[in-house]
Prior knowledge:
Elements: H1 7-47, H2 53-91, H3 95-133, H4 142-159, H5 169-204, H6 208-238, H7 248-274, H8 279-288, H9 295-298, H10 323-333
Helix pairs in contact: 1-2, 1-7, 2-3, 2-7, 3-4, 3-5, 3-7, 4-5, 5-6, 6-7, 6-8
Keywords: Membrane, Transmembrane, Transmembrane helix
Transmembrane segments: 17-39, 60-85, 113-134, 141-164, 176-196, 217-239, 251-275
Amino acid sequence: MDYIVNPRLFASNWHNMVFIITQACVQVLFYGIYLNLFLMTIYTLGRRKVAKREILLRHMWILTAFGTTQVVLCLVETTTLIRVVQEFVEQGSSLNVLKLEASSESLQTAQHFTFAVNGLAAHCLFVYRCYVIWGSQWKAVILPGLLVVGTFVSICVVAAPRFGTSPPLGIQRLPYIMAAVTNLTLVALTAGRIWWIRCDAVYVCADNTLVNQYNTAIAMILESGALHAIIATLLAITYPLAHIYPKGMSFWAIQALAMHFINIAPALIIVRVGFGHDIQEAIERSRITNPTVHPARTRVRLVPPFQLSNDGLVLDIKPDVEDQYKELIHSRLGFAGK
């Protein structure tokens, strides 16, 4: 049978086109989801007086800019690869085809670097949240900070253009492994700290509503962090299939999901806070209901070192025992004024 074009080269170009079309479709889908969440985030931060609202707004705009850039680069790369297949069928391995292939590789590299910077920006928000929850103790974020930087550097090293050789498979999978470890570390530090504060809150105040708000905070952090780690793990597992057709479609689809889930997670938390999952509101309700204190359960820790703020579950989840709680505790234990 006579072929107009080289079947092996045509199959390679065709598979690359199918992979990038798969990634483009998934990216557009989840970018649309993120845009809706972003608009809800702007509305939420606009109608609620959150203490660090300006920081959150600026950060969300930055994440949106990177997410939009990734979608645009992906769509341009998709168009370029479609042209590669068309030109290859019409002209074979011509100079124009080689230029289009080089342009496609450059677009893919740019998309990887954009993803790396986007991930760095998103992780910085998570690290800052951990820093605030730990009472602005910088020692608590040394390890996650180093992991975030390590993840960023590993993505840049793998994404850097090379000529003739490519790094070993283990090195190519390193960014995904680092991302999984980073997210698990942040989840452990953040959710663990909130759980510890929750235990102290139970000793001081028996308000079930307040305790439930802590549980909600822990659940949201565990959900987002666990999904991050699962997605990164799936990328590390499916990476060897990236260039095998059709199994490689799973890797490209998961990678497209990861590119926008890093922006969806913080936006989703802010939106959920906007719909009432706020510890501050629980505190206000507990004032009205005049919470009871159980002296037998307070032990030595009469006044835990908490600090109440208006940031809810977004950044500053560390409610305090306010003055009226302190007076109530002291009066119940019989040493008011001390």
